[in-house]
Amino acid sequence: MRTVKICCIALSLAIYGKALAQEKTVAINWDRTQQVSKTTPTLQVVYNPMLRENSPIYKGTFEALKNLEASYVRYVPWFPYPKAAVVELKAPAKTETFWDFSYADPTMEALMKAQGDRSVVINFSTTPAWMWKAAKPVEVDDNPDQVNWNYNHGTELTDPSGKEVSAYFARLISWYTKGGFTDELGKYHQSGHHYNIAWWEVLNEPDLEHHISPQLYTRLYDAIVTEIHKVSPETRFVGISVALETNPEWFEYFLNPANHLPGVPLDAISYHFYGRPTINDLPIGNYQFSFFDQANGFLDRVRYIESIRKRLSPNTMTHINEIGNILMDHDYTGVIPPTYWNLAGAMYAYLYLELTKIGIDVAGESQLVGYPTQFPDVSMMNWTTARPNARYWVLKLLHDNLGPGDELKYTSLPSQSVVSQAFLTKKGKRLLLINKFDNNEVLKLPAGALHIKYVDGTTGDNPAAKEDITGSQVTLRPFSVAIVDFN
Fold it and tell me: Which class is 23-34+409-486 in CATH?
């Protein structure tokens, strides 16, 4: 009986494998437009020591950012490194102030140089710790690269009106856009910076950082935006920026114009999504199920949030500006196999496509640089070689071939594994293919297919490969993201 059972299982697996390899046909109606895309694929850059000039991947990282040529790049100097994230670490005294941009400037300068004329979303997200009530002051290490996960503390501002916080951010943006600022004691500090900051995002994940309520956040947003507008009237603003999009109160309250001061703009909102494994000790390849299941759940919440936005503030844009996967926590030090980067890239591509169908304005992949102890699983750079990994190359493949203004054409494919969508772009006809699972998929394409560009397990840390299509059939390897060009 045992031998028969094993044979039956082997036969079943063989039949299953054969079924997976069966040819599936893609059908495209180039004459029917489903909708027009307005979604920009882009990324976020989060400050950490690997972005400093003394980092071994500094040059490769900013070259990768420059070569991407993306708009709406989000830059977040973040609280675990307070010397770079906070430019006034001590409260002003009667005779002196303590403004210091020596750690913030170099990375900001490198970012703005890499971006050139392309738009940025700047988010100096961390408020000085001394602006919050606490039992004792927060100590900051002299070493700028020393991580401090305890810097953000307190839930009650010393100045609940928001004037102190808003004045801080107004001086900060003046440093970068107006060449300098006048401090609390009337002394002028010259920077020489005259950057064009198209977008400013107000705080980051306030539902987690300081556990701010929607009501307090909205008051702070109004105060900060009002003061920044006095300095930089052309700058537009992104609000909310919550980590957990599961609480509708944030969107119901913030997007209601009646809860804001007259004249305060509601240019855009933002929120985040990370897929996580449900069982950490499974092989990486098995995470495909939890990642894509969670992605689909997130998309349902996006549709609900969009219904709130359209009802309360229909002209407000939506930036989903942190999209990624986290295996465990920031200090994950386990082995990350190459397959993982392709899986994570495929999930981003899938979310980009589905967010395009929903009508989201910005889909930002998180993040340019991570490394062991600093969210290595969300990195788009290989921290050992200074080369971009598959997550970066998937983003570049999407960015270089698809974008706002493209017409989505009616597309069908009888497959649970592969997602397909045809686009009519300014450069011609394109077909996006995403293999969500860890198996080969054979597809039959419509007439006119010329060549295929793809990122999969064979491309590694290299750009998308390109092959001519000589027949009507293509094979997608596990977690492949591909673009087919048609005549």
Answer: mainly beta
Domain 39-404 = CATH 3.20.20.80: yes
Which residue is listed with tokens 């009106």?
161
Say which residues have a Cβ less than 8 Å from residue 325's Cβ, sequence separation at least 6: 274, 275, 276, 287, 291, 340, 343, 344, 347, 377, 378
Q: What is the mean pLDDT of residues 9-15?
A: 38
User: Are residues 322 and 366 in contact, defined by beta-carbon separation less than 8 angstroms?
Assistant: yes
Q: Answer for the pair 368, 74: CB distance below 8 angstroms, yes or no.
A: no
Structure tokens at 252: 């119901």
Q: Which residues of the chain does CATH 2.60.40.1180 include?
A: 23-34+409-486
- In three-state secondary structure terms, 14 is helix
pTM: 0.93
Phi-psi region of 70 (alpha: psi -120 to 50; beta: other; left: phi over 0): beta
- Surface-to-core class of residue 9, CB atoms within 10 Å of its CB (0-12 exposed, 13-18 middle, 19+ buried): exposed
The structure tokens 């701010």 sit at 212
pLDDT at position 480 over 50:
yes
Whether 233 contacts 265, CB under 8 Å = no
